[in-house]
Design brief:
With 173 residues, this protein is mostly beta strands. The protein has a single domain, classed as Sandwich (Jelly Rolls). It is 0% helix and 56% strand. The protein contains no helices and 14 strands.
Length: 173
């Protein structure tokens, strides 16, 4: 039986900023939303592989995700996921302790999945405690190069382990 994938990616922020000016209020309220869908396939606006997991990275340690050999258990079976292109990465830092950051990227020359970081193998983006990181490239995707550009590093520079959730969507070819 063939598999199919459909994916909705959403992020939004709504606000109400009110300021009392003499005898009246001035209100600024609005909403910014990102809402996009990907259908099954390997072209623009499509994905055909999805990996998700809850993981813990130890104090001062790295969790190196090999995007060409991600292993996950589904219904008691071990499944290996391999990406040729990554279209979406969502990472949520589950720590509620101020200062507990996760650094995403920066696996170093010869290994790093660096294309979302403008090709910089040492560049990182920090996901703070109770925060998230959402990267989307649904048209072209970021190329994964087996053996030389396939390690997505999640680094914990802190003194205690941090649990995070991650979802990666992309294409096999």
């Amino acid at each position: 039986m063939p598999d199919t994938l459909s994916l909705d990616v959403k992020a939004s922020m709504a606000w109400l900023f009110s300021e009392l000016i003499q005898i009246s209020n001035v209100n600024d309220n609005g909403k910014l939303e990102y809402s996009q869908s990907l259908t099954d396939g390997v072209g623009a606006d499509q994905a055909d592989v999805l990996f998700h997991d809850e993981r813990t990275v130890g104090a001062g340690a790295n969790d190196d995700l090999d995007l060409t050999a991600l292993v996950h258990s589904i219904y008691g079976n071990i499944v290996t996921f391999s990406f040729a292109k990554v279209k979406v990465i969502l990472l949520m830092n589950l720590s509620t302790t101020a200062g507990d950051v996760l650094r995403v990227g920066g696996a170093g020359a010869g290994l790093a999945f660096a294309t979302p970081f403008n090709g910089n193998a040492t560049a990182v983006i920090e996901a703070p405690a109770d925060g998230c990181l959402l990267l989307v490239n649904k048209k072209n995707g970021w190329t994964v190069t087996a053996g030389t550009g396939d390690i997505l590093r999640v680094n914990n520079p802190g003194a205690a382990g941090i649990t995070y959730r991650i979802v990666i969507a992309g294409t096999k070819t």
